[in-house]
Each structure stands twice: as structure tokens, then as C-alpha cells.
Amino acid sequence: MPLADVFSLLVLGQGKSGLDVARWALAHPERVSAVTVYGGGTSEPNDATRALEAAGASFVYGTEQVEGAYDVCVTCPGISEFSGFFKAGREHAAQIMGEPEFAYRLSPDNWIAITGTNGKTTTTSLTDYLLKASGEASVAVGNIGEPPINEIDGRAHNEWFVAELSSYQIATTTELHPRVAVLLNITPDHLGWHKSHKNYALAKIKLFDNMVDDDLVVVDVEDAGIHEFDEYIYTPGRRICKVAFDEPEGEDVAFVRDGKMIVRLKGVETQLVATSELKISGHHNVINALCAATAVLAVGANPEGICRGLASFQPLEHRVEPCGEIDGVRYVNDSKATNTDAVEKALTAFPDDDVILLLGGHDKGTPLTDFARVVMDNVRSVVCFGDARERFTAAMDEADVDGDVDIAQADDLRDAVDVARSLSSRGDVILLSPACSSFDEFSGYEERGRVFKDYVAQLAAAAKSQME
What we know:
By secondary structure, this protein is an alpha/beta fold. It has 3 domains: 7-98, 3-Layer(aba) Sandwich (Rossmann fold); 107-312, Mur-like, catalytic domain (UDP-N-acetylmuramoyl-L-alanine:D-glutamate ligase, 3-Layer(aba) Sandwich); 321-463, Protein-Tyrosine Phosphatase, Chain A (Alpha-Beta Complex), CATH 3.90.190. The chain has helices spanning 16-26, 47-55, 84-91, 99-106, 120-133, 167-171, 191-194, 197-205, 224-227, 230-233, 283-298, 303-312, 340-347, 369-378, 389-399, 413-423, 445-467, and strands at residues 7-12, 32-38, 58-60, 70-75, 93-98, 111-115, 138-142, 160-164, 180-183, 216-220, 240-243, 253-257, 260-265, 268-274, 321-326, 329-333, 355-360, 381-385, 406-410, 429-432. Strands 7-8-6-9-10-11-12-13-14 form a 9-stranded mixed β-sheet, with helices on one face. A 6-stranded mixed β-sheet has the order 15-16-20-17-18-19, with helices on both faces. The longest helix is centred in the last third of the chain and has 23 residues, at 445-467.
């Protein structure tokens, strides 16, 4: 159902994207006749909401009981579609959707959408970077930066939106129709919001619902979590590019041959750079790069620009990010790895190195048996820290059947770095890839990563001064 020329708007939640939608609506009175925001059960006024009230929006605080009738309801992503608050919005509005769907309805041309449990931000950033390197107008939107609604005014007609979308955001779409959609992987996550792993996976796959054979779906066919849901992905009339390190069969595939990245679309091959030229490391980042390159080739970007971009793209902060060397030991910040799958992928970046892995933080209760076996096969030492240290230590001890991995504990992150240093030798890698959220000690993975880097810098400065 298209948006009416003029409509009344209900916003659920007063998170950033919800307030940005309200702000856009107030700036467009020719489209939006009235703006009402229900902040939620524990909501209270703040500076941002007061400013919007002064500009003409109506706010209702401290309740999830919606009253009135509205043409369109836009929900913040933290509000589950299974919640009473969401249900109330749906009952009182003719249409309900999330912010990306709302932005798409207003500006539907030239969307590339990227999702997956892990790797979304790197792949979105790289896709945007490759488009720009090829001379295309592009902006990265969604979870990676600004909500799309903030970028639609003044948008050039040929500008690409490269949207990093979460399962929350995709679940509330009905008409979103990207030209290219990328699915990187599926591992259990956000079960509190989605109520089941199947619901979570199908929310990701919903990204493809409106795509036709002129579009391109890009899928990592190495991922076992994706294979569980093949019946929902491989449907008639849907054009799919299979991505893997080893060459898959088909006219639309991306892979590595003789060390070079190859993308084959409609049977025509394009040879790109050698994987050794990538500055982002690890098997998973080769797959991410293949997905990004496939997406931009599919929309007409030139191969020369793509090759320049692939060879010059730098690792993102907190994602397998080199952050120093002390006494011949390298330190790597992968604080964004808040689940076990992300850690397993990070370990592929160091196939020939002795790794001392820092694990821990706020325990998400993730099953650890299989993960611990992978860790034992890929590290020399493990330091478990934070609230999760006891459970992680027990899992590592149980998996260390040969007794050849050093397993230690630490109270907090700085203590973990000190313990890791005491276990290290020249040539080792100390890798912060914690498999946990950070809320036992920090405000988020960003603060955790910055504290890690700052502490490494302090230690490096102290080591240097001792040598002088």
C-alpha cells in the first residue's frame, strides 16, 4: 500500500530512528498532517523530545497503550513485532512499518541491502567504498550510520543507498525492494525479540521477498546456518549469486581461483585482486569482500575502481583491528565480536600465528561446547575475564583434552591484557575477541575496544621508555 499524499503519523518509541522520523515529518507538513510519538512504558521527556514538542509533535510518555487512529505507524527497531506495544500500534494505524521501510517508500530507487548475523558493517562499508572508488554516488545508511530517513532529502537521483539492516528492521518491511541484497550468515541471535531462531532467520530472508529476476541475491553458501533455510531462499524467479572460497557451480558465482578473486555474473567472469592484496584479514573477510564486489559489479561499477578499492580498504575499528606491537607481540582489537561465531571467524585471520585469545565480559549464555573445541584447535593460550570468566574457563578446560593450551583467568580487561602479556613470546598475537557483550564493565563494545587500545598504547609507551 503506497503512502498517501498526506497522512497522519504515529511513531512508537523515542530512540534515534523514531525521533529522526518525527523530525523529518515535522519538516514536511505538506506530506504529514500530524505527528504523535508514544515513547513507551518507561519513557520520560528529554531535551530531544522537548525540542520536537516545541516544533509541533505530540508526545505521550510512560505508557504503551495507544489511543487514536493514524494512517501510518513507524516503530523503533527495539520494539518486537511480538510485543503488546507493537500490537497496539498495528491496531491503531492503517499501516505499520520500521524506519527503513518508511524511508524506502519515500525514496525507493537504488538500494543495496546487506544483512547477516556477523560481518554486516564491514561488508556495508566496503560496498559503499567500492562504489565511491568506481565513481558512483553512494552513502552507507542504516545500522552503520545515519538512518535512511536522514538522507532522502536532497538525494541525487543516481545515488546508491547501501543499507546495513538488522533482523529487527527487515521484519517490519513489506515493500522494501533492493536491487541487490546480501545475506552473509545466520547464527542464533536476538531470540528475545524474535521468540525463535526460525523467526530470526526468516526475518533475514524476508529481505528477498520483493526481488525478481532482474535483481540479485548474494548468498554465502559456505554458511551452515544459511543452508538450514535453503527452501526459503531458493525460490522460483529469484536470481541468486553463490559466494564461496572454492568455486561453486552456476552462472552467478563469486569465488577464489589461484589466489585471485573472481566474480561471474550471467556467465561472464571478472578477475579482481589477489586475496593477499586485501588489508582486511581472515577467511570471513575474503567472503565479505567477494560479496561486496559482487554487489557493486551487479549495479554497474567498473572493475578498475573495484580493484583499487579492494586493495586500499582498511580494517574498521574494533573488527580484527591491528592496534600495536610490544616486544614483538602484536595486539589486535576485535571487540565487536560479541558472539562465538564472530570469534571463530576472527581466528581464521591468524592461521600461522600463536594466538593468545581474550574471552569474556557480560555472559550472554551462549552454548560453548562446540565453540570451545574450535578455540582449542586455533590458539595457544586463552585468558577468560569479566563476569563470564568462570563459565568460559570451565568450557575451555573441558575442551582441552590434550592439556596443551594455557587457560587463565582475569578479573577485568586490563588484568586480562597483563595476564596475556605474561604468557606471550615474541611473534605471538594477543587477540581481544571476547564472544560476549561488554556491559559488565563498559557501555558497549566501542568503549571496550577503545580501552583496550589505550591500554596497549600505554604499555607500548612504557616499554619504549624503558629501552631509552
